[in-house]
Design goal:
By secondary structure, the chain is of the alpha/beta class. It has helices at 8-16, 35-41, 57-64, 75-92, 151-171, 176-182, 209-218, 236-240, 257-270, 289-292, 300-312, 325-333, 346-352, 364-373, 405-413, 432-441, 454-461; strands at residues 21-28, 48-52, 102-111, 122-129, 138-146, 192-200, 224-227, 233-234, 244-249, 281-288, 316-320, 340-345, 377-382, 417-419. It has 2 domains: 8-207, Maf protein (Alpha-Beta Complex), CATH 3.90.950; 239-427, 3-Layer(aba) Sandwich (Rossmann fold). It has an 8-stranded mixed beta sheet with strand order 8-7-11-10-9-12-13-14, with helices on both faces.
Length: 492
């Protein structure tokens, strides 16, 4: 039986009745929707030191400083608000008078739906808080995207999520995964989306924010998250806005020389395009949730192993729930109308043109292709060589269903599908599944399949179940020690 979930009023009252919790509220853009729960629930004087809403931009600038980009719904603005308001608490409240108080500052800056409903709204929300009077504060900062069609409903949702954040910060900080899930207590995932969250501070030193991003995908709180080479979660809108985008989807389990050659050669071709600005180009290594569930469960350590290597190579990683490529491109198009490109192997391309994947669409495969190629997009196709005895497969000789063939030929003729020709023929027989099996079983030879230094990282950190075996330990009759059959679906 599920445990009883408190509503916003009950959570606010529970906080108000805790004499140790004391702080301020600063809310901009959607009214004082969070603090009103605390005022209405009773006992607010024991919790609220100050509540304010600097709606006027000049007042806001006078309090928090002027933004260089003149934007007010940004992470930088939120951080200024939290820093300023928390600083006032420590400055104005004498610790001798409040020796047992755990101070906090809650802030949000939000732009709700516009009159024409062409813009649904988004915002930033965060809390800086102590878990003990003698401790340095922690921070939880998140970005939200609204999906409701009425401003008043958005206001209510923002207020409820703010209460959930404050309540979770003080009651669930030891269990950040539960804290994250609690943000949606009594809130529909269809009403609001969290597409970025970061936990910082002494009580969150053990938290890997990449795993928290993964939780957002797992619980369908968002459909895609991005983190950078340093492992920090990034806001998709900031990274992708008005950028050229180049993406490579794969398992990267582990990343191999094939993956690197695909990206390098695809990058070289894409940057030669007239409509591509090298200085405004985002390169993404994408992993789908479906891929992470390849073994039937979400293995967090396996995810971190992949992320660790990609980050060490200086790559930006996208985790998405978009199994179909046209949905991934729709996602990119939400932020940018600039030219974008996908890199995929021949087997992946063949699967893209398989009609069985689009039977749930009214327009079938043509609807999917229309949504994919209606954007300014190119697909760079990397060759595939199933075995030494077979020919290399490219756009020139792959088999496509006769019903789709005319459309396929049209895309090739118009340069929407392009062969990667200057590939490294020496790496075509590298398959990540085979490499992974060798790593796990301690079979020699896998090191030469990986980029420089990646093999050392796998050994030093024991990634992907790495272990070493003596030659005498290998038993050819043991199925667990045998090579996995070379995959025919994907060479990633």
């Amino acid at each position: 039986m599920d445990s009883f979930i408190l509503n916003a009023a009950q959570k606010a009252l529970q906080i108000n009745l805790d004499s140790a919790i004391y702080g301020t509220f600063a809310e901009i853009g959607a009214g004082q929707e969070t603090v009103r729960h605390f005022f209405r629930s009773g006992g607010a004087s024991g919790t609220i030191a100050k509540a304010m809403s600097a709606y006027d931009k000049d007042f806001s600038d006078a309090i928090y400083g002027k933004e260089d980009d003149n934007r007010y719904v940004t992470e930088n603005r939120l951080r200024k608000m939290l820093s300023h308001e928390y600083g006032l608490i420590t400055e104005r409240l004498d610790r001798k008078k409040h020796p047992d108080k755990k101070f906090f500052a809650f802030s949000n800056t939000v732009a709700t739906i516009n009159f024409s409903k062409s813009f649904k709204g988004h915002g930033w929300m965060g809390i800086r808080f102590q878990t003990s009077p003698d401790k340095m504060p922690n921070e939880i900062i998140l970005h939200i995207r609204m999906h409701e069609n009425e401003a008043r409903y958005q206001h209510e949702t923002i207020g409820a999520m703010g209460v959930n954040l404050i309540h979770g910060a003080f009651h669930l900080y030891k269990e950040p995964k539960k804290l994250l899930v609690s943000l949606y207590d009594n809130i529909s995932v269809d009403a609001i989306e969290i597409d970025m969250i970061n936990f910082l501070g002494p009580d969150f030193e053990h938290v890997d924010n990449r795993l928290m991003s993964l939780q957002l995908i797992k619980h369908r709180f968002t459909e895609a998250v991005i983190f950078g080479p340093e492992g920090n979660n990034l806001l998709p809108a900031e990274i992708l806005y008005r950028k050229n985008i180049l993406a490579l989807r794969g398992s990267f389990r582990p990343v191999t020389k094939v993956n690197i050659d695909m990206m390098k050669k695809g990058y070289d071709m894409f940057t030669q395009e007239k409509r591509v600005d090298k200085d405004k180009l985002v390169v993404l290594f994408e992993i789908t949730l479906n891929n992470l569930l390849a073994d039937g469960r979400l293995d967090e350590q396996d995810f971190l192993d992949r992320a660790e290597i990609l980050c060490s190579l200086g790559q930006t990683v996208l985790i998405s729930n978009y199994q179909e490529y046209f949905k991934l491109v729709d996602y990119f198009a939400r932020y940018s109308k600039k030219r974008m490109a996908l890199i995929m192997g021949v087997p992946n391309l063949v699967e893209v043109f398989n009609e069985k994947y689009y039977r749930n669409l009214t327009g079938g495969a043509l609807e999917a292709f229309g949504r994919l190629f209606a954007k300014d997009i190119k697909i760079y196709v990397y060759p595939y060589k199933p075995s030494n005895s077979e020919d290399v497969r490219t756009l020139d000789n792959i088999k496509i269903h006769p019903r789709i063939r005319p459309f396929f030929d049209y895309l090739v003729y118009n340069g929407r599908l392009i062969n990667i020709r200057n590939y490294d023929a020496d790496v075509l027989q590298i398959f990540s599944r085979s490499v992974l099996q060798k790593i796990r079983c301690g079979i020699d030879g896998w090191e030469e399949c990986l980029p420089n230094y990646v093999d050392n990282m796998i050994k030093e950190k024991a990634l992907f179940g790495y272990r070493t075996l003596k030659a005498s330990d290998y038993n050819e009759d043991d199925d667990s020690m045998k090579e996995i059959k070379i995959p025919t679906i994907s060479n990633l």
